[in-house]
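Case 450 in the screening queue. Each case pairs one protein sequence with one candidate compound; here the compound is pyridoxal-5'-phosphate. For every case the pipeline is the same: read the inputs, emit a complex structure as tokens, and attach any notable structural observations.

Predict complex for case 450.
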Amino acid sequence: AWRRLCPSPAALLGFDCDAPLPDAAGLLQRRRRHFARPQKNYYRNPPEIERGWKEHLFDIEGRAYLDMLNNVTIVGHGHPRLSAAVGRQWSLLNTNSRFHYAAVTEFCERLAGLAPEGLDTVFLVNSGSEANDLAIRLAWAASGARNMISLLEAYHGWTVASDAVSTSVADNPEALTTRPGWVHPVVSPNTYRGPFRGAGSTGDYVATVSAKLSELEEKGQKLAGFISETVYGNAGGIPLPPGYLEAVYAMVRSHGGVTIADEVQVGYGRLGHYFWGFEEQGVVPDIITVAKGMGNGHPLGAVLARREIAEALEKEGYFFSSSGGSPVSCVVGTTVLDILHDEALQDNARTVGSHLKARLQALMDRFPLVGAVHGMGLYLGVEFVRDRETLEPATEETAAICDRLLELGVIMQPTGDHLNVLKIKPPLCLSHESADFFADMLAKALRDGW
Ligand code: PLP
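Case 450 output:
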């Protein structure tokens, strides 16, 4: 019965949605045999998801879940407009992106229209990792140098170059000592638990970048660029200290470097008040990278750069991606933008996000474990600590809370460098009712204990 309750457009399109379901335990066993473990906690309590509708997911055993984890499916699961647009384009044409077709022209125009003036040259790829890899190569080509400054505790992707600048210490603290020589990490501007905790510390964080630049200068090494997220995503969406990017971008540019804004997680309307995260800091980068939500789960990423930066790469090498920007990908990208606009999803992220943040902040009065509620729009982070003074991370408690939330019908995972943060990144169509359900279930999980 629950399967019929999920109004997925698949049945309307004539697909058989009533086929017998496989058995969940058997499926898990089969997957363990062949599917590489993508993440540390991948096999911890996995529901076997079969279909989705808006912000809800349904597993093959008949349970419904609220999807608060997603960050990719921004316009919601099972969107009929996307199903129809993809079905149409698949039937017409999907091919190597070497060919010319209208879909790519239209999508690039739409993307360029969303970016600040001048950042109007678009490269289309298949993921955020590829986008950041390409952005680094663009910085190298434009500067004629290799040295990149990145932030500690950041994640930019899994490909060789994007992983090199992903100086997260959670998985492997030793990795920091084995970074390639062109990566120069500086302190993460985490105002909650960074080394310069508290207000009025922008100058301290900026000083770590100027010290790094002086170090390079003393060694006679040139700078290629600086890469960062524009809101600190890894820890649940902590805004950077006021004026941080303005000061850092100015210094980087004065040293001949290129500034890269990684908007893969925090951009594309999720912050509610801003379409791009860099708007929150009042700056304009030289290169923007974007992925995740722009394809609503379909592999799609992009790099937007100024024309002269793009041309520098043409002189030094080449760029080509067989299916980056394929006709289907471009139609997905354009349709996602249409839906974001027509359903005013950025506005929804702002209003429902503010409501949810207020509800979560109220939990701080009742539960000492809730150390802080970060973020804005529908990019929020709840950070659990054992002590609000020392900020000792409540790692085991966070894992137990996520397990309890799953039993209560909410999908959530511990994240952040100490695995003590709930990063809240639901589809942007999240209703007020669903936001309240989440806040109620989190309160229940905290009340039940671990
Ligand atoms: N940049 C940021 C900030 C991310 O959060 C991620 C993915 O989590 C990436 C880049 C990599 O994107 P993808 O997984 O699409 O390769």
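Case 450 observations:
- DSSP finds 15 helices and 17 strands in the chain.
- Residues 100 and 393 are 52 Å apart (CA to CA).
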